[in-house]
Amino acid sequence: MNKVILMGRLTRDPEVRYTQTNNTLVATFSLAVNRRFVRQGEERQADFINIVAWGKLGEFCSKYYKKGQQVAIIGRIQTRTWDDDQGQKHYVTEVVAEEAYFADSKRDSDSTSSTFDATFGAMPQAGGTGSDFEISSGDDLPF
Q1: Which of 50, 90, 101, 137 has the fewest CB within 10 Å, making it most exposed?
Q2: Assign residue 106 a region: left if phi > 0, alpha if psi is -120 to 50, beta otherwise?
Q3: Does the domain formed by 4-83+90-114 have CATH 2.40.50.140?
Q4: Tens digit of each residue's pLDDT (9 = 90 or more) over 78-110
């Protein structure tokens, strides 16, 4: 099984490109993920993980994710190799995102991200409560 769950802060705004063959959107960004333990007398260490998001998920990330924002990504690890113009072989390990979430608290997040539910693509209801029905103060409640 190849499954990765990460929570960290974006080190830069997502960068968007389109594939040459079928014009598919691909967003790339990196997360600074803090290590769990700190050695005594040292600063907390972080790992910088490259993330790739394709299609609609990539569009979502590029539109609503900004540098410094805390997010959670669920995906899979992928490795790639290629040869450059000088014949030098390059290796890359990255996470291909399958799900993306906001992870900042409501008070820390900006107004753009707080208008969305925490999951990719889930819009709140018109009333802004996120529920399928509204209760006015005059309604009788069964409890």
Answers
A1: 137
A2: alpha
A3: yes
A4: 999 999 999 999 999 999 999 999 998 766 545
Give the tens place of pLDDT for each residue, 46-62.
999 999 999 999 999 99
Strand 46-54 relative to strand 15-18, pairing = unpaired
Domains of the chain, residue spans? 4-83+90-114
Q: Which two tokens stand for residue 25?
A: 């959107």
- The one-letter code for the residue type at 33 is V
Query: Could you identify the residue written with the tokens 């260490």?
Result: 45
Q: Exposure of 8 by Cβ count < 10 A (0-12 exposed, 13-18 middle, 19+ buried)?
A: buried
What is the per-residue burial (b if ≥16 Cβ within 10 Å, else e) of 28-43? bbbbebeeeeeeeeee
Q: What length does the chain have?
A: 143
Backbone angles phi, psi at 18, to 5 degrees: -125, 140
Q: pTM for this one?
A: 0.71
49, 6, 5, 2: which is closest to 28 by C-alpha? 49
